[in-house]
């Protein structure tokens, strides 16, 4: 895996990352840190990447289990250390998984497998952060029958 990150120049703290897969992502700092607030902060990108990694795993595990998953979102709430390096100290993942007749046990198993075995990002962050998660299931079969 490869990535390059280039500074946008002396007028701020904008950085542009170019990934090995050919994608571009911008990062910026807060105005009080010399940035112009034009893009997410690098630590926000790290948190978002962790959420993406975990959600990807959950969907893949449920699909492989032949469950009728139609949506998945994850909200992450993180706390950071007060002193440098300001690592994440606590991260809570709230998964909202949508589908028809999704068993609670299957969704919770998928989330647990992501955290315990598959998600590289949360495995790394788990070295400094207390990790927790919760699950909400939105049953589209129940919603359709109620209509």
UniProtKB/TrEMBL annotation:
<dbReference type="InterPro" id="IPR003718">
    <property type="entry name" value="OsmC/Ohr_fam"/>
</dbReference>
<dbReference type="Pfam" id="PF02566">
    <property type="entry name" value="OsmC"/>
</dbReference>
<dbReference type="InterPro" id="IPR036102">
    <property type="entry name" value="OsmC/Ohrsf"/>
</dbReference>
<protein>
    <submittedName>
        <fullName>OsmC/Ohr family protein</fullName>
    </submittedName>
</protein>
<dbReference type="InterPro" id="IPR015946">
    <property type="entry name" value="KH_dom-like_a/b"/>
</dbReference>
